[in-house]
Amino acid sequence: MSRSTADKAAAAVKRVGVKGVNKPKRTPNHRTKSHVVVAKEGDKVKTIRFGQQGVSGSPTIKGESKAAKNRRKSFKARHAKNIAKGKMSAAFWAAKVKW
After folding, report:
1. CA nearest 46: which of 55, 32, 36?
2. Across residues 34-51, what is the average pLDDT?
């Protein structure tokens, strides 16, 4: 007997330690990735680790420098094709959380 989507999502949330599906969390002790999220879209559930550990993103800040703005713009342009894939891609979550 196969498990339901809700059961799979609940198990993944518990295993990873996030508050719920589609709720990203920092992972400061992970070797390489800075964040984790249990992504759910329709009947698909997937654990996604994203973001390079130790590299700060560049979220929008009032009065930010032109360099920070250009850095964010370059990241989003460089990864636009993967960001467009939606919730089931690491690039989507990196753009949302870190950039």
Report:
1. 36
2. 95
pTM: 0.90
Instruction: Provide the 8-state DSSP code for 2.
Output: P
Tally Cβ neighbours within 10 Å of residue 85: 11
Q: How many CB atoms lie within 10 A of CB 95?
A: 20
Amino acid at 45: V
Longest dimension (CA), the chain: 56
Helix (H, G, I), strand (E, B) or coil at 49: strand
Say how far apart CA 99 and CA 97 lie, in whole Å: 6
DSSP string, 16-77: HT-SSTT--EE-TTSSSEEEEEEEEETTEEEEEEEEETT-------TT--HHHHHHHHHHHH
Helix/strand/coil for 35: strand
